[in-house]
Amino acid sequence: WDSQVIRFFLLQSHYRSTTDFSEDALEAAETGLKNLYSMISTIEKAENGSGESFDIEGFKSSFEKVMNDDFNSAKAIAVVFEKLKEIRKLINDQKTPSNIEEVKSVIKTVVDDVLGIWPQENAGGNEELTKGLVELLIEIRKEARDNKNFALSDKVRDDLKELGVQLMDGKEGTSFEID
């Protein structure tokens, strides 16, 4: 198991409680961590918007309150998920908070510096190459769709999915996430 998955798994339970260490529990932690990373990715890509400022102080206060409650990391993760979902919804609804850069900074502090579960960079150093190749395939898929070659378009999407690349079609075009 990846070290980040194990760390996330351990943070999901209070240090004084018994931990149910099993394959199913680790798989659930892996799924939760992927969801967290997906939300972080969406937020990191956002640029300053014209929406109302997000309540950063409320976020920090809620997080600090549960952490000060006997280092309750399980509740802290719940607070992080709740707030990130709120922020992602604002972004998806085209209401990106005007203080999104400050929000990103607080998220980085909470998730990385405090919890230590920030998404790790690609250790192989091929991130730019991978991104470029996926973007090339997305462009080929778009051309296939424009030419009504839906079989090729579907094949590109399905083959990328098998490789762990999730395509998301939206108003602004197609974006992707790598599992």
Description:
Helix 2 crosses helix 4. The mean pLDDT is 91. The chain folds into 2 domains: 112 residues, Anticodon-binding domain of a subclass of class I aminoacyl-tRNA synthetases (Four Helix Bundle (Hemerythrin (Met), subunit A)), CATH 1.20.120; 52 residues, no CATH class. The longest helix is centred in the first third of the chain and has 23 residues. With 179 residues, it is mainly alpha-helical. 63% of the residues lie in helices and 7% in strands. It is built from 7 helices and 2 strands; from the N terminus they run H-H-H-H-H-H-H-E-E.
Strand content: 5-15%
Reading the helices and strands in chain order gives: HHHHHHHEE
Q: Report the CATH topology name of the largest domain.
A: Four Helix Bundle (Hemerythrin (Met), subunit A)
What is the domain tally? 2
| Strand segment tally | 2
Q: What distance lies between the first and last C-alpha atoms, to the nearest angstrom?
A: 14 Å
What is the chains' assembly state?
single chain
- Derived from helix and strand composition plus strand pairing, the structural class reads mainly alpha
Radius of gyration: 19 Å
Low-confidence stretches: none
Question: In which order are the strands of the major sheet placed?
Answer: 1-2
Shape, per Cα inertia axes: globular
CATH C-level name of the largest domain: Mainly Alpha
Share of helix, binned: 55-70%
Number of contiguous helices: 7
Largest sheet: 2 strands, antiparallel
